[in-house]
Specification:
This protein has about 260 residues and is of the alpha+beta class. Helices cover about 20% and strands about 35% of the residues. The radius of gyration is 24 Å and the shape is elongated.
Length: about 260
């Protein structure tokens, strides 16, 4: 599972001398109280009650763990190797803790807290790999991957670079394109990739079935059936981000291959 953390940008987090406004989030059942981006406690199952109890809190509906009303209180000043809030408060941060909880805690800990690096070191023992996408002070954007996810990500990136170099590839089309001509498919069906590779037909024709629209690649203004077929496509890469594999392939031309 791919996960992101972008620290709250509605507050001035660079000046720690100013108290960060409280937030009202929402767990599985309870509306929850957050301070400094970390969970404090459950408040109520009713939003209006939560707002009355904390009238100055900003309602963000921040997602996070929801526990029983016997909350675990505010973060404590504990040694860096111990959880300082939450379900395992006071216990050692170790590989014995469920991986899903370590993931949640890593996202909840403040980016400048030394405990965050300690959690990373523990998660790395479990095979997690961390990347920093934007290293802007006080507001970095981080991603983490499990060992399996990273292996698939590397395979995807390698496949994209191979297609870029060749300029053509055979793809198996499992579905019709969307209204903009996009499809996503795995060019190498023998090896699953981190995510399917995106391709875009230059034009589509619109049709209807039982009142619902669907689209097919347009050839001389008419739709060409490609669903369930193998296509040999000539492509050009379109970049959409800083990462060299963020983007999709424009389909310059295609040939429908005969089914074997």
């Amino acid at each position: 599972m791919l996960n992101n953390l972008n620290t709250t940008d509605m507050f001035d987090m660079c000046d720690k001398s100013k108290p960060l406004p409280q937030e009202i989030g929402f767990g599985d059942e309870y509306y929850t109280l957050w301070e400094w981006g970390v969970y404090v406690k459950n408040i109520s199952k009713d939003l209006e009650t939560a707002k009355r109890e904390y009238p100055d809190a900003v309602v963000t509906l921040r997602k996070g763990m929801s526990w029983t009303p016997s909350d675990y209180g505010k973060p404590e000043d504990l040694p860096v190797n111990l959880f300082n809030f939450g379900k395992y408060r006071g216990e050692e941060i170790s590989t014995d803790i469920p991986a899903s909880y370590l993931e949640w805690y890593w996202q909840a800990v403040l980016v400048w807290d030394d405990r965050r690096e300690y959690v990373e070191s523990v998660m790395e023992q479990l095979g997690y790999v961390f990347e920093t996408i934007d290293n802007a002070p006080y507001n970095p954007i981080h991603h983490f991957y499990t060992a399996e996810e990273m292996a698939l990500k590397v395979a995807y990136e390698k496949r994209v670079e191979e297609i870029k170099a060749l300029g053509e590839v055979v793809i198996h089309v499992t579905h019709n394109p969307d209204c903009d001509g996009f499809i996503a498919c795995d060019p190498d069906s023998s090896s699953p990739t981190y995510r399917k590779v995106g391709f875009k037909f230059p034009a589509v024709a619109e049709y209807y079935y039982d009142g619902c629209p669907y689209y097919m690649p347009a050839v001389k203004g008419k739709g060409k059936r490609v669903k369930g077929r193998d296509l040999k496509v000539t492509v050009s890469w379109v970049s959409e981000g800083d990462d060299p594999t963020d983007g999709y392939f424009d389909i310059l031309s295609f040939e429908v291959l005969k089914n074997k």
